[in-house]
Amino acid sequence: MPFVTTQDGTEIFFKDWGPKDAQPIVFHHGWPLSSDDWDAQMLFFVGHGYRVVAHDRRGHGRSAQVGWGHDMDHYAADAAAVVQHLDLRNAVHVGHSTGGGEVARYVARHGEPQGRVAKAVLVSAVTPLMIRTGDNPEGLPKEVFDGFRTALAGNRAQFFLDVPTGPFYGFNRDGATPLQGVIRNWWRQGMMGSALAHYEGIKAFSETDQTGDLKAIGVPTLVLHGEDDQIVPIADAALKAITHLRSGTLRTYPGYPHGMLTVNADVLNADLLAFVQS
């Protein structure tokens, strides 16, 4: 299995499909999942001749379950280690949810300074800041994220069943048809990872202010968000993020949930392809 070892000794698992001389598209997954969450996009883009790369964040999926570094700085540095190991250039980086925060920090601190990034995409991303603070009064109260921690510590397996069954894919909405395979796959990915990484990751995705990262990004950046996102409300995320980007484009989707990259993959894939080719 392909791994890269980071400077602090953490083994990061990655996938690398497609022609090695093709333009690379790098996918960054959300909490508490793995690179498998990008199956629909990776198969789509490799079928269109692109090189597709995705890694499991430290403590997630098949990467090492280390007891340290569960923060946005390490997430971005780990992504950089994969990119450097594969010597990826002219890459498009696509991040979902927490992975969107990872993309923003990677591009701002590693990718653009090294001249390796062509474009970026933030899908249902946590940027710029989720938690309510004095400077971010519209954010979600800390009690929301404390509830996540309590549920995870109390019964992670049940919590990881409740999230995809309910708000993540919008299956709790009237008229929605829950897809059992999608729910079970979310649960499977989550339970592969480390409880500690997931617990500490809640602080990483909710309390990391990435306003500076967004302002530092100069490459064309596409921001995609569902208007019925119950996990990362659009008003706290995309509608703010777009104001900080120097070359940003916003596209929103009425009625789409947080997990739209899976349940609305046909629409998302077409829009991603159009952006990559533009």
UniProtKB/TrEMBL annotation:
<dbReference type="InterPro" id="IPR000073">
    <property type="entry name" value="AB_hydrolase_1"/>
</dbReference>
<dbReference type="InterPro" id="IPR029058">
    <property type="entry name" value="AB_hydrolase_fold"/>
</dbReference>
<keyword id="KW-0575">Peroxidase</keyword>
<protein>
    <submittedName>
        <fullName>Non-heme chloroperoxidase</fullName>
        <ecNumber>1.11.1.10</ecNumber>
    </submittedName>
</protein>
<dbReference type="GO" id="GO:0016691">
    <property type="term" value="F:chloride peroxidase activity"/>
</dbReference>
<dbReference type="Pfam" id="PF00561">
    <property type="entry name" value="Abhydrolase_1"/>
</dbReference>
<dbReference type="InterPro" id="IPR050471">
    <property type="entry name" value="AB_hydrolase"/>
</dbReference>
<comment type="similarity">
    <text>Belongs to the AB hydrolase superfamily. Bacterial non-heme haloperoxidase / perhydrolase family.</text>
</comment>
<keyword id="KW-0560">Oxidoreductase</keyword>
<dbReference type="InterPro" id="IPR000639">
    <property type="entry name" value="Epox_hydrolase-like"/>
</dbReference>
<feature type="domain" description="AB hydrolase-1">
    <location>
        <begin position="24"/>
        <end position="258"/>
    </location>
</feature>
